[in-house]
């Protein structure tokens, strides 16, 4: 019977799917991230056929070396796979898969939760109200900013970026502009969207900038001190992609000096650490990498990761093979 290792407790539907395919499933009994040494010790001890991993597992050359000859696939339960050394996986002859699609709507929703929360000062107003500071309606109290009819700049027009663009255009009558390495003229026609040849052109025109690029060597610190200065002082920055795309130290300085109006981020440069200067500022909202964290979506992600394993172990092409 094929044996699967799951690096941490995940929604039951994923486990059930693996078991009903006839596999023996072993889940890390401790609900914590495994260190690299711990993961390698599990791999050596268990001689597993497949491993279901999370974005917090660092899968590097040593891990693939430890898995070689036994593990056929590492199925990452995430759309992102910047935690995986793909070249090392290839060298070891091990497949890697991810879980795209099933989380698109949820991450787009969370992006809007952040966008609206920062523009309408929801977290600040909640703190204010709970502190007993509300003593009656005031015409000038906690004034925010509208999203409707504003310019929303999408950095990265993949699945999630496109979904955010859809809601911005259709739900909020926003003007959508975008930057991507690939131009999409069909999308432009459908949403009246405008392509920006460079990130700089997008930053200078947007009232809201939403980041949806993957983390790659070319996108690390895509938003740095210089690019923050190119944004309008009235603009907001939202990041639900990956933390290292934004230089967090530069972000602290920009917020302290009112270079931009506000920021709402779900991801951090050195997770789970957070640049201390970000905490305590009023013009920022922080959520702990939960953009895909709904009951429905996390179950679908677990199921899809399981489907990738099942396909691989039945000698079929996994639906979400990462190359
Ligand atoms: C979450 O960040 C994911 O990549 O799925």
From TrEMBL:
Q: Which GO terms describe its molecular function?
A: glyoxylate reductase (NADPH) activity; hydroxypyruvate reductase [NAD(P)H] activity; NAD binding
**The entry's keywords:** NAD, Oxidoreductase
Question: Record's superkingdom?
Answer: Bacteria
Question: The D-isomer specific 2-hydroxyacid dehydrogenase NAD-binding domain covers which part of the protein?
Answer: 112-291
Domain (D-isomer specific 2-hydroxyacid dehydrogenase catalytic): give its ranges. 4-323
- Which InterPro entries does the UniProt record give? D-isomer_2-hydroxyacid_DH, D-isomer_2_OHA_DH_cat_dom, D-isomer_DH_CS, D-isomer_DH_CS1, D-isomer_DH_NAD-bd, NAD(P)-bd_dom_sf
Please provide an example of a Pfam family that matches this protein in its UniProt record. Answer: 2-Hacid_dh
One Gene Ontology cellular component annotation held by this UniProt entry: cytosol
Q: Which PANTHER family match?
A: 2-HYDROXYACID DEHYDROGENASE-RELATED, GLYOXYLATE_HYDROXYPYRUVATE REDUCTASE B
Family statement? Belongs to the D-isomer specific 2-hydroxyacid dehydrogenase family.
Q: What is this protein called?
A: D-glycerate dehydrogenase
Q: What lineage is this protein's organism placed in?
A: Bacteria, Candidatus Giovannoniibacteriota
């Amino acid at each position: 019977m094929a044996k699967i290792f799951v690096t941490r407790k995940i929604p039951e539907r994923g486990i059930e799917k693996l078991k009903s395919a006839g596999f023996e499933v072993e889940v890390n009994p401790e609900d914590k991230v495994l260190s690299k040494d711990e993961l390698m010790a599990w791999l050596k001890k268990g001689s597993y056929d497949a491993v279901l991993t999370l974005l917090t597992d660092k899968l590097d050359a040593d891990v693939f070396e430890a898995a070689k000859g036994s593990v056929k696939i590492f199925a990452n339960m995430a759309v992102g796979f910047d935690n995986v050394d793909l070249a090392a996986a290839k060298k070891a002859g091990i497949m890697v898969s991810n879980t795209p699609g099933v989380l698109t709507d949820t991450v787009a929703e969370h992006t809007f939760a952040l966008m609206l929360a920062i523009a309408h000062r929801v977290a600040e107003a909640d703190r204010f109200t709970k502190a007993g500071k509300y003593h009656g309606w005031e015409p000038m109290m906690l004034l925010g900013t509208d999203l409707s009819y504003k310019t929303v700049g999408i950095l990265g027009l993949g699945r999630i970026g496109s979904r955010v663009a859809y809601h911005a255009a259709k739900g909020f009558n926003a003007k959508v502009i975008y930057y991507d390495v690939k131009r999409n003229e069909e999308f432009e026609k459908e949403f009246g969207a405008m392509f920006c040849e460079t990130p700089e052109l997008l930053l200078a025109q947007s009232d809201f900038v939403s980041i949806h690029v993957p983390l790659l060597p070319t996108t690390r610190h895509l938003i740095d001190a210089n690019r923050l200065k190119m944004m309008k002082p009235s603009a907001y920055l939202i990041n639900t992609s990956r933390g290292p795309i934004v230089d967090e130290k530069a972000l602290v300085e920009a917020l302290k000096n009112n270079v931009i109006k506000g920021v709402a981020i779900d991801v951090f440069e050195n997770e789970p650490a957070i640049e201390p200067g970000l905490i305590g500022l009023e013009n920022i909202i922080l959520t702990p990498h939960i953009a895909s964290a709904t009951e429905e979506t996390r179950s679908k992600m677990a199921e899809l990761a399981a489907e990738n394993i099942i396909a691989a172990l039945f000698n079929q092409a996994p639906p979400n093979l990462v190359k």
